[in-house]
Amino acid sequence: MTYCVGLLLNEGMVLLSDTRTNAGLDNIATYRKMYFFEDPGEKVVVIMTAGSLSVSQTTMARLREAIDDPDATEATSILKAPTMLKVAALVGDMMCKVRIEIDEKLATMRQGASASMIVAGQRRGGEMRLFLIYPEGNFIEATEDTPFLQIGEHKYGKPILDRVVKPVTSLVDAQKAVLLSMDSTLRSNLSVGMPLDLCVIEKDACRVSARRRIEAGDEAFRTMSDAWSRALRDGFTQITI
Questions:
Q1: Domains in the chain: how many in total?
Q2: What is the number of helices (H) and of strands (E) in the chain?
Q3: In the chain, which ranges are E strands?
Q4: pTM (predicted TM-score)
């Protein structure tokens, strides 16, 4: 399992993913789940994945192959697509096609595979946009009323986002919010694990503004986690019924 979250704010976008993948208690591995596609200053696309590695990795490989194709067009390459809506459609179509192919191979074993993705980005002259792509290839988009999207094991990290994240939230506070959301998930679900990948895209930069890999034992993350635990305990003791 995994946990990925993306925030769409007035100042930009903040994305966070874990890297744990498990197929049982004795088969745990680390795989990157955040992928970057850039034409700096012109277009930036960041994709986060959750679910079957066979589906997500094949999808990402084919998207990359389409970008590198000398004959790539607006209809095939996410870096040539004229809008972020078209990017989301290309990603959804590719993932759906891959999922169907893999399902056919697994059918004799009475098994299936699926994945979901978060697609974030902006092209020069366009708006920042954030999409959640479902296994079937259809998608929804973040809005002012719902400025964040999650995939994977999201239920533990959702309450803090519901309470504190608004479009006017600063990029600094947004990073704190997604990290605390991840911290809650890490404490409650063993299928989500370190290291973490954090990404910030400033509005109209059309490039990745900041990237950070947070390893297990990271002092800053541990300090923040401990402070959050103390704040929750203190708040709990102060409430009367």
A1: 1
A2: 5, 12
A3: 3-8, 12-17, 20-22, 28-30, 34-39, 43-51, 115-123, 129-133, 139-141, 148-152, 196-202, 210-214
A4: 0.95
Q: What does the pLDDT average to over 193-214? A: 97
Asked if residue 56 is part of any domain, the answer here is yes
Identify whether the C-beta of residue 192 lies closer than 8 Å to the C-beta of residue 22: no
What is the pLDDT, as a whole number, of residue 107?
Answer: 80
131 in any annotated domain = yes
Residue 95 pLDDT exceeds 80: yes
Domain that holds residue 66: 3-234
> What residues contact 39, with CB distance under 8 A and at least 6 apart?
79, 206
Query: What's the CA gap between 147 and 165, in Å, rounded?
Result: 7
Q: Has residue 193 been placed in a domain?
A: yes
Average pLDDT of the residues in 150-155: 95
What percent of the chain lies above the pLDDT cut of 90?
87
CA dihedral 39, 45, 50, 53 (to 10 degrees): -30
Mean of pLDDT values over 127-155: 97
CA distances to 21, 68, 111, 118 from 14, in Å = 22, 27, 35, 12
Structure tokens belonging to residue 151: 């995939």
Terminal-to-terminal C-alpha distance of the chain: 38
* Burial environment of residue 90 by CB neighbours within 10 A (0 to 12, 13 to 18, 19 or more): buried
What local confidence, expressed as pLDDT, does residue 23 receive? 46
What number is the average pLDDT over the span 13-30? 75
Kindly report the CATH number assigned to the domain that includes residue 53: 3.60.20.10
